[in-house]
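User: Watch each token:
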Amino acid sequence: MAKTKTQFAELDPVWNQIRTEAEDAVEKEPLLGGLIHSSILHHETIENALAYRTSLKLASGEMSEQLIREICDAAYSDDPALALAARADIAAVYDRDPACHRFLQPLMFFKGFQALQSYRVAHWLWQQGRRDMAYFFQMRISEQFGVDIHPAARIGKGIMIDHAHSIVIGETAVVGDNVSMLHSVTLGGTGKEEEDRHPKIGDGVLIGAGAKVLGNIHVGHCSRIAAGSVVLHEVPPKSTVAGVPAKVVGEAGCSTPSITMDQLLGTK
């Protein structure tokens, strides 16, 4: 066991940290021992743990935990980028969410992270041509987490979805790397057109709670969208937009708004 832990530390520091925190959590709260052992300590890799947690959450009377687990295992085996993105997402939540004090928390308790990892498997299914199964995953993610992400949407890594209630991301939406968004965000269309109809969010963007970004528009890198805004037009890079409809009200205030999470419009 000691040798395995050393290998984890050298090859996968995120997973090693999660396991260390899990052991500490069991010691402090023995009543959670069974849950934490089955979810974390029973598994040798983060891929196995992610597949287990996803299957546990998405299983229902319509689709067994075992079948969903097999799908997730196949996805992580076929595409190593899925677990790499999950590691980046965990680090993002830990760095940006003041309520997150351990790497363990997103994997065990945060529905934004769990919904995002479930979407990543659904997106893999979509790319494999397994559209109906991808739709099934989308349905269960929406039912379980209150997060509705079309499996065709493209989402980068290092994503934090804080609180993650009533998130909607449409079919042709694109979300870059290191984006942060709060609850009730919509990346939607503006009509019934079937072509490219959803927003393209650049890297490092911060999207405030309740913001709606509608149509095939680009939101520039490292910009901020204020809470409650309705964005209908292009957003220049490194700028702040606010209002209904949203207008540019200043610069982004810093080079990395999605990391600093500063939502005060007075910041220059």
